Amino acid sequence: MPTFTHGDVAINYEDNGNDAPAILLIAPGGMKSAIPFWDSTPWDPRDQLAESHRVIAMDQRNAGASTGPISAQDGWHTFAADQLGLMDHLGIERFHVAGMCIGGPYALGLIEQAPERVLSATLFQTIGRDNNEAEFFAMFDAWADALKSDFPDLTEGDWAQFRANMFGAQKPFFNLDVDFVGSVTTPLLVLMGNDVYHPSASSQLVASTAPNVTFIESWKEGAARDAAMSQFADFLALNQ
């Protein structure tokens, strides 16, 4: 797979190279968000959109095959810079974004950082705050523990601050508050979550707050899955 480098960061990505509208896929997996996680989702957008879109998928920094420095100042903005940097590298000015799990706040963060560039955003079972801070801190710690030997100069305080930057803010989507979501006019497609990491309440909050939302409650199996796939394709086509 190709690699995009900027400074000390190396981002592993896939690009099908189609001459078609572009979509950036941000995989599930929490802090381990990486391309292979799409293989175990209800359907793989890489396969569905292979003919209709230029599909870009990426491993986030220090997940999968991507690497980069870590500091106590890192947070959601760090990953947004990687995501926008990759699209700049590929010469893609405007694009759709679809994110699952942690990809929900990442997608909304791209709208915050560069609203003029994002054609639409699809949020598959977004993560969100719902009396689950301990679960997200534990998820971060498991990811960090696997990396600490590669970053011997970082203190426990540095790691704790990074964790707080990611999951410590009292905001419903960790990086963004309700007021921002209510200001988003970018078309959103929201597919509801239903577990501790992807609370139904988080998806419902986006659907009830943002002014331009298509909301799908059931989408993972059988006829509901088939219908949701069709709605996803139609949503992208409508918002080129």
In short:
With 240 residues, this protein is an alpha/beta fold. It is built from eight helices and eight strands.
Topology:
Layout: E1 3-6, E2 9-15, E3 22-26, H1 45-48, E4 54-58, H2 76-89, E5 95-100, H3 103-113, E6 118-124, H4 133-147, H5 156-167, H6 178-183, E7 188-191, H7 200-209, E8 213-216, H8 222-238
Parallel strand pairs: 3-4, 3-5, 5-6, 6-7, 7-8
Antiparallel strand pairs: 1-2, 2-4
Explain what you see:
The protein is an alpha/beta fold and 240 residues long. It is 37% helix and 18% strand. The protein has an 8-stranded mixed sheet with strand order 1-2-4-3-5-6-7-8, sandwiched between helices. The protein is globular and about 50 Å long. The model has no long low-confidence stretch (mean pLDDT 98).
Counting copies of identical and different chains, the oligomeric state is single chain
- How are the strands of the biggest sheet laid out side by side? 1-2-4-3-5-6-7-8
Q: In percent terms, what proportion of residues is strand?
A: 15-25%
Average pLDDT, rounded to a whole number, is 98
Number of strands: 8
List the defining traits of the structure above:
alpha/beta; 37% helix; 8 strands; 240 residues
